[in-house]
Amino acid sequence: MYSLIKKFLFQLDAENAHQFAIQSLKLLGKTPFSSCSLPNNPVEVMGLRFKNPIGLAAGADKNGEAIDGFAKLGFGFIEVGTVTPVAQDGNPRPRQFRILEAEGIINRNGFNNLGVDVLIENVKQAKYDGVLGINIGKNATTPIEKSLDDYQICLRKVYPHASYITVNISSPNTKNLRTLQYGEALDDLLRALKAEQAELSQKFAVYRPLVLKIAPDLTHEEIASVADSLIRHQIDGVIAGNTTLSRDTVAGLPFADQQGGLSGKPLHHLSTQVIHQLSQELKGQIPIIGSGGIHSVESGQAKIDAGASLLQLYSAMVYQGPTLIHQLVKGIKL
After folding, report:
1. Per the annotation, does 61 bind a ligand?
2. What does pTM read for this prediction?
3. What is the pLDDT of residues 102-160, one digit of tens each?
4. Is residue 59 annotated as involved in ligand binding?
5. H or E element: which one contains 166?
6. Among 2, 9, 46, 319, which residue has the least CB neighbours within 10 Å?
7. Based on the structure, what is the number of domains in the chain?
8. CATH number at residue 200
C-alpha cells in the first residue's frame, strides 16, 4: 500500500509532501480505527513506561497536529516540536531535499513552527495516552546570549503537558545554536534549566525528565565534555543525535551540496559511532535515545548494541512507510 502512496508523494516537492502526510495523519487520528496491533514490548526508561522502544523523532510533527494519527501507526512514544516561544516562518523555501539514491534528506527548515501556545492547545486536544516528548528551541531572532530566556519560556509552558522535555541545541539551521553544546555555555544552560525543572516539579507535584539533543558532528573530546556536563548536572537523558553537516556519505549525489542538515540512511554509521562513544563516557549513568539513520532492524539493533535504550526515527518513514515501525518493534532485542 505505501509503495503507491510513496509514488504519489514523491511527485510533490518534499515539503508539500510532508504537509500532505501530516494532514492525512491528522484525519487518521480522528477516525474510529484502533491503533496497530503490535506485540507487547514495554520498556522503562527515565522513570517512564514506554509501550515499545520505537519512537517518532522531533521534526515530523512540529506543531503537534497529528499526534493521534502517529500513535495509530504503532509508535511506542512520540516527540513533537521543535517549538519556539513565538511562531516563526523558518528559512526560505525550498528547504527540504530528497537524496533519493542514498535514502537521505537534507533540510534547512530553521525551526518553522506556529509557536509554543499553538502546540500546547494541540497537545491538550489529542487523545493519545502514551509517552509524549516536547522538543523546545530558541527563536532565530533571539540573540545567542539570550537563548536561556527562550528555553525557560518554553519549559515553563510545556512542563505540565509533556512526559519529558527535550532541549534542542544541535540544529544546524539556527545561527550559532550549536555553540551552546560547548564548555561554559552548556554548563550555564543546563544549570539554569535544572533549577527551573526543580521549581516546576514542586509547583506541579510531578517530575518531568529533561533530555538534551546533541549533534553527531562532535569530536571524541567534545563528546567526553558533553557527557561530563550531563552527569554533573544530572540531566535525565540524551538524544544522539540530530542531523549532520557532513556530506561524506552522499558526495556527488543530486542535491548533496544543498546547505542544511543531512538525515536518513547516510547518517546511520556516524550516529551509531557517537552513541557508542557517548555510552562509554556515561557508563550507564544516563540513558541514550538513539536517533539518526535507522532504516532496518539491523541498523536499529546496532544502536541498541552501541548503548541506546530507546530509538527514534523519522526520515526512514518517508522512504519505507509505517511497516518499518512494526519490523523494529518485533525485531529489536533490548
Report:
1. yes
2. 0.96
3. 999 999 999 999 999 999 999 999 999 999 999 999 999 999 999 999 999 999 999 99
4. yes
5. strand 164-168
6. 2
7. 1
8. 3.20.20.70
